[in-house]
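hey so u asked for the seq, here:
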Amino acid sequence: MLSREENELITRVGPGTAMGNTMRRYWIPALLAHEIAEPDTPPVRVRLLGEDLVAFRDTQGRIGLLDEYCPHRRASLFFGRNEECGLRCVYHGWKFDVAGSCVDQLNEPAEHQFEHKVHITAYPTVELGGIVWAYLGPPERIPAPPKFAWTQVPQTLGT
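ran it, structure tokens below
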């Protein structure tokens, strides 16, 4: 039987935990692709390995997986507007692209804008087998996308 400490060690998956660091080295199924099938539709909440995230498909069809909370005032980006290749926070209007870069700040005068300095946590994604997979680990250790036999089969239309 495991001790309380051993059980904690293998069951905690948040950032900085032993098992969390291990799990972040793999592609993880984040959500079903049909949940964000169309570009510029509302974002979807996703919770992975103890992190609150939002997923969205931008105007160009790219998938973004970002920290749920805007770095400005921690407003939830779940309520944000998915528009013109970015997710716009409804609180102050900051807009983030799929890479987590701030690309617009409506509330700042042009001469004071500092969007190039603002970044939100964003994770790489890949869409395979009708699933959006996410990689939450160190960028320099990103593995090849998952290649299960069922992820390589062409999608068929259901009835």
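The two ends are 48 Å apart (CA to CA). The longest strand covers residues 51-57.
lmk if thats what u needed
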